[in-house]
C-alpha cells in the first residue's frame, strides 16, 4: 500500500503531530493515574474496597488496562466521531464482560476476574479495533483486504516495539538507581518504588513509544517487512512437520496423542501456527508482494493441512465429551475449533479452487475468509464471556444431565466442580440435586456444607494400581484376573468408572486362544494373550465420515458380528468398525 493510501482518510487531528502527541500523553498519564488509584483500593488488611465491591472494581480495572491502547492507536487515525463512538462501545463491552465474569462467581469474598477473560478480551479488542480503523479510513462498512492487513500487522509491530520501549525505559531507571545507590544516594530507587510515580510514568513511556513509532511510519514498515519475510520462511518448517505428523498417523494410530491429555490443545496450536504463517507469506495479496514459488506451494499445502488438524481436534473433543461431559475448558476448546474450521474451509477452498477453475487468483479466498473469521472471533468471544454461551452454565447443565441419565455414578460425580469451580449456577444445581434420590442428595448436601475443596472427595489419579471397572456381556463369566491386574495404563483412562467399558471374551480369529474385546464410548480395543501377558493387539474404529455411535450399547444387547479372515472387521449394531493393527506389535 502506498504512502498516499495509508494517510488517506486520516482525521484533521492526524494532520497536527504535536496535538496528536499531546493527546496521547494525556491518555497515557490518565491510564497510569487510574491504575494507581485502583491498585490502592486493594491495599491494606481486612475487607478492602476492591473486595467489598468486586462488581465495580473488576470493570474499572479491565477498562483502565485495555481501553487506552486502542485509544492511543486511534488518535490521528480515526475521525473524532468514530473514535468517540468506538471508545464508548469498547468501554461498555469491557465493563460488561468484567462485571459478568465477577458476578457469576459464588461467595461474598475472593471474587475476581479470571485469566481467560483478560486473554480473550484483549484479543477481541485488538481484532475489533483493526476491523474499524480500515473501514473508517475508506468510509465503508467492509474495507479492502490490503487495508486490514496493513492496519493489523503494523499495529502488531507497533505494540511489540512500544512494550519493548517501556521495558527498556524501566531497565535504565533501575540501572540509574543502582548507580546512585553506589554513591549513597537512594532517592531514585525510593522514588521508583512509589506507585504514584511508577504507574503514571509507565503510562507516559508507553504513550511516547506509540507516538514515536507512529511518526516513524517508514521505519515500522521496514521492521514489519523483515518480520514477515522471516515468518514466511518458517512456514516451510511447520508445514513439513505437520505433514510428517499427519502422514505417520495411519501407522502409529492416535492412541499416543489421546494419552497425552492435551491432544486438542496441541493440534489447535499447530493449526494456529499455520494460520499465522500462511498470512505472513500471503501478506496483502498484491502482485508485487507475491512470495517465491516454493512458498506459494507451502501456503497451498499448509492450507489443505488445516482440515485434518481441525478434524482431529473435533474428534478428540468428541471423545472426551462423550466420556466425561462438558467442562469450561472443553467449551472454550470447541469455540477455538469452530473458528479453526472456518479458517480451514476458507483456506482449503483458496488452495484448491485454482486447480478446478483455471485463471483464478492465487489463494484469493483467504482474504474474505480472514475478514469473516475476524468478525466470527469477536462474536464467539463475546458469547463465551456473557450469559449467551457461558461455559460454566453449559458445563453444569451437561454434567447434571449426565448424572440424571446415570451416565456417571453418584459416587463418581464431581460435586466439587459444582461447589467451587462453576460459580452461582453450580451452587444452584447442587440445591436442585437435594431433590434427587437420597444418595445424590446426600452428596449434594455435603458439597453445599463444604468450605474448601479439600473437604470433598476428589477423583483419584489414574495409575497402574487403579482398578479396572469393566462390565462383561455375560455377568456370570468374569474376565481373567491376570487381564484385570495387568499394570499397563493404556486402558485405565477409559475404564475406571461404572458403565465406562463393556467386554466380551472369545476366540476372535480361530487360533484356539480367546481374546478380549473391550468397547468404550467410541471404539473397540482387542487384547490378546502372549507369553509375556496380555497386550493390546489393535483396535476397531468407526470411520470418521460415519454417523458415530456407542458400541457399548450394541455389546450389551448382543448386536455385534464379525467377518473372516484373521482379526475380522466388526459391525456393532448398524455401525461398521475397521480393525487397525497396533504398529510394531505382534499378537503372539
Offer a concise description of the structure.
The protein has 588 residues and is α+β, with helices and mostly antiparallel strands. The protein has helices at residues 3-7, 17-40, 49-52, 54-66, 68-74, 80-103, 115-137, 145-182, 187-192, 195-215, 217-252, 255-259, 263-282, 293-324, 328-356, 365-384, 391-404, 415-421, 423-433, 438-449, 481-484, 551-556, and strands at 470-472, 501-506, 515-519, 523-530, 533-541, 560-563, 569-572, 575-581.
Account of the protein in words:
The chain is an alpha+beta fold and 588 residues long. It is 61% helix and 8% strand. The protein has helices at 3-7, 17-40, 49-52, 54-66, 68-74, 80-103, 115-137, 145-182, 187-192, 195-215, 217-252, 255-259, 263-282, 293-324, 328-356, 365-384, 391-404, 415-421, 423-433, 438-449, 481-484, 551-556, and strands at 470-472, 501-506, 515-519, 523-530, 533-541, 560-563, 569-572, 575-581. An eight-stranded mixed β-sheet has the order 1-2-3-4-5-8-7-6. The longest helix is centred in the first third of the chain and has 38 residues, at 145-182.
What is the count of β-strands? Answer: 8
Spans of 5+ residues with little confidence (pLDDT < 50)?
1-15, 544-548, 583-588
Total helical segments: 22
- Percent strand: 5-15%
Helices and strands, in order, run as HHHHHHHHHHHHHHHHHHHHEHEEEEHEEE
In whole angstroms, the N-to-C terminal distance is 67 Å
Q: Which sheet architecture does the biggest sheet show? A: 8 strands, mixed
Q: How do the strands of the widest beta sheet line up side by side?
A: 1-2-3-4-5-8-7-6
- Gross morphology: globular
Structural class: alpha+beta
Give average pLDDT, whole number. 85
The rounded Rg comes to: 29 Å
Fraction in helix: 55-70%
